[in-house]
Amino acid sequence: MSSAAAPSDLNPVSPENLSDPLPLYRELRERAPVYWSEPIHSWLVTRHEDVVAGFRDPRLSANRTVFFEHQVQSLGPDSVSAFMRVIRDQMFMKDGSEHIRLRRNINPGFTAQSLDTWRPAIRRTMEQLLERVMPRGRMDLVKEISYELPPLVIAELLGIPAEDRERFRAWSKPMADFSSPAPDADMRVLAHEVNRATMAFREYLMAVVEERRRAPGRDVLSQMVSAEEDGKLSTEEVVANAILLVFAGHTTTTDQLSNAVYDLLTHPEQLQALRGNPALLGQTLEECIRFSPAVPGIGRVAVEDFELRGQKIRKGSHVMFLLAAANRDPEVFSQPDRFDISRDSAQTRHLSFGFGPHQCIGSGLARRELEIALELLFQRLPGLRLDEAHTPVRHHSLAFRGFSSLHVRW
Ligand code: HEM
Q: pLDDT tens for residues 92-124?
């Protein structure tokens, strides 16, 4: 890892810059804070101050469906029609009053009070996962824990019966793969898979919604169905946004957990400090989330021409907020490239969950999951360390950063 040198190229998706983006972030923040990147046809915004302002700027819309449409044009008009129909109803893609209406009616399941009632279920799920691997003394953390825990927890929140959870989890993967394709991915295959998964998932959820109308529970889906019955959400919106929760809450949390474990294991003095004082867990987690965000960048679309730091942003152009670059802005974080669990500012100022109206609705859930997972991992697997027989395998795009495999032992 060579984070000191200035990059020779400013292509954010070159293999070198994807693998170690810190020199690029620094260069852009210092010399070109609003930068047009030809290879990805997008503006890149890297300063903390500009990203915060951008998230609040009504000239930048969250409706990115046009970019999905553009991406799939060459694949034929019907290739992803089911998927496109669903994402148009998701709050993620809405602005203004439409966004507020959807979010307000989905939010009751995500208040601190409501989420605290799920803590025992998260803990139980994590304990079950750990019991399976404990006698083995080694595992691929991604395969056994990071990838497993989030969909099981979301399924629990939505009240999905245990026997359906395997299918449920399998539907979320093609959505993540399609939204952030690997450089060598075959888009035709991904499009086919995402469309098929969306249709199956939608049909399944329609039946569950019907069931919840008859027999409501205390789960998040029942709360959304109650808003539907009050005429505040349509049935399509309930289903589309339940799909969004699975999609948005799965690989993000998977990657964040793997990133956090990796950073702690590769900074033994920080792990030691945490072990010495478990009360530091909350702030340790915030530093992990600042330091290695699972979502390094998030996009918007300009809905009018305007100027930003002297650059002319044209209506219809794509603007990418590089959250991971903003999280290393020295104007906000002292010694930003230092992983430091005693840092105060990380707790309030990192942008890894976004900012403004679309700030992650699941951040409270993610934090509870991650806290419980880290606590139990380091408590139950004493001597947890990287398994040197296996090289960690990263995956990274501008939108998602995590590990495909991370072998550990204890
Ligand atoms: C560590 C894990 C997570 C990370 C890093 C993360 C990151 C983000 C970010 C950066 C945004 C802002 C998107 C934007 O501005 O366009 C966002 C929004 C969102 N997240 Fe998360 N997220 C995580 C976990 C979750 C979980 C567990 C859920 C739900 C179960 C979830 C559901 C959502 C939803 C529905 C939105 C859209 C909110 C809106 O449009 O108002 N996320 N997330």
A: 999 999 999 999 999 999 999 999 999 999 999
Ligand 1 atom at minimal distance to the Cα of residue 294? 5
The whole-angstrom separation of Cα 309 and Cα 138 is: 51
Spell out the domains of the chain, with CATH numbers in brackets.
69-258+368-393 (1.10.630.10)
Find out whether the beta carbon of 295 lies less than 6 Å from any atom of ligand 1: yes
Residue 278 burial class via C-beta count within 10 angstroms: exposed 0-12, middle 13-18, buried 19 and up: exposed
* Closest C-alpha residue for ligand 1 atom 20: 360
pLDDT less than 50: residues of the chain = 1-3
Task: List, edge to edge, every strand of the sheet that includes 138-140.
Answer: 138-140, 407-409, 385-386
338 Cβ neighbours under 8 A, 6+ residues apart: none
Task: Give one DSSP letter per residue of 161-176, joined into a string.
Answer: -GGGHHHHHHHHHHHH
Q: Where are the alpha helices (DSSP H) in 180-219?
A: 187-214
**Within a 10 A sphere around the Cβ of 306, how many other Cβ atoms?**
14
